[in-house]
Specification:
Pfam family, one: Peripla_BP_4
Strand content: 15-25%
Oligomer: single chain
Number of strands: 12
Structural class: alpha/beta
Number of helices: 11
Keywords: Signal
Family: Belongs to the bacterial solute-binding protein 2 family.
Helix content: 40-55%
Bound molecules: beta-D-fucofuranose
Strand order of the largest sheet: 2-1-3-4-5-11
Order of helices and strands: HEHEHEHEEHEHEHEHEHEHEEH
Largest sheet: 6 strands, parallel
Shape: elongated
InterPro entries: Peripla_BP_I, SBP_2_dom, YtfQ_transport
Subcellular location: Cell envelope
Length: 312
């Protein structure tokens, strides 16, 4: 047929490829969107795509990778729940000549030679964008900030904290008063925010909340409302991901800012693997996705409408 003739002139085609994806779980709206966008991107390219849901556990991810190796897949995508503890299993993949692509989170420097490329945003920069927005918004006023961190040991939690801390460091009026993990989930975000409010005498002194993702912020907004606080006006909010629900909150005046992260990490990863398999093209070690700030000035209702169908 025409198609197969074309395919043979072009060499190894995407349609011949089987790729396994060790996904973290479904802790956030962003994560759910990444999973569904990845499936759609695989389909577009006719790639056989197998997703293993690790339910937040690194041991499950390691098992999934070993099972993909045993199945002889052509490549493995890995969204590493934490940054350490991957060297052994990634060595096994390398010995089997199966390229590994990291999606959305990074691993420690010791593993740099063990994967082909990483498709991620600059998560230090995301934290800095959030911190700079806050500094600009509060001006010279004193501001006590509470922080909801992502999963302990995840590269994005470490980096989003680091970028934010650096951005506010030169503003002595801004003080981080409490910081704790909410594990990237709505439920934990709410629970931890409730404890912050209690510990801060009802929360009247809290000037701003910084959350490493929007889902934790949505939970925190709920906690603030239940405590009689007014998020978005009395308490400033800034978080990361740009999921539809945060735009709904911004449109309602209950949230202030978010830093966008594309859920399409797999698209560039598939393209890198196809070019590598097909032409031996070695991709750059880091394929960086964009980070963009959104506030109430950006027509949040319209963004909400346009995003909500996109796999979230
Ligand atoms: O921001 C968060 C998710 O690793 C970039 O993980 C990802 C983060 C994302 O659960 O919502």
């Amino acid at each position: 047929t025409v198609v197969s003739t074309l395919a043979s002139t072009l060499g190894a085609q995407a349609a011949d490829l089987t790729i396994g994806f060790s996904q973290i779980g479904s802790e956030s709206g962003w994560r759910a969107a990444e999973t569904s966008v990845s499936k759609a991107e695989a389909k577009k390219r006719d790639i056989t795509f197998k997703i293993a849901d690790a339910q937040q556990k690194q041991e499950n991810q390691i098992k999934a990778i070993r099972s993909f190796i045993a199945q002889g897949v052509d490549a493995i995508f890995l969204a590493p729940v934490v940054a350490t503890g991957w060297d052994q299993v990634l060595k096994e993949a390398k010995e089997s000549k199966i390229p590994v692509v990291l999606l959305d989170r990074d691993i420690d420097a010791s593993g740099k030679d063990l994967y082909l490329t990483a498709v991620t945003s600059d998560s230090v920069h995301e934290g800095a964008v959030a911190g700079e927005w806050l500094a600009k918004t509060v001006g010279d006023k004193p501001c006590a900030v509470v922080e909801l961190q992502g999963t302990v040991g995840a590269s994005v939690a470490t980096n989003r904290k680091k970028g934010f801390d650096t951005a506010i460091a030169s503003h002595s009026n801004i003080k981080l008063v409490r910081s704790q993990t909410g594990d990237f989930t709505r439920a934990k975000g709410k629970e931890v925010m409730e404890s912050f409010i209690k510990a801060e005498g009802g929360g009247k002194n809290i000037c701003a909340v910084y959350a490493h993702n929007d889902d934790m912020m949505v939970g925190a907004i709920q906690a603030m409302k239940e405590a009689g606080l007014k998020p978005g006006t009395d308490v400033l909010t800034v978080s990361i991901d740009a999921v539809p629900d945060i735009f709904k909150a911004i449109a309602a005046g209950e949230a202030n800012a978010t830093v966008e992260l594309t859920p399409n990490m797999a698209g560039p990863a598939f393209d890198a693997v196809v070019a590598y398999k097909d032409k031996g093209t070695v991709p750059p070690k880091w394929i960086q996705t964009e980070s963009k700030l959104y506030t109430s000035a950006d027509d949040p209702q319209k963004i909400y409408e346009s995003k909500k169908g996109l796999g979230y």
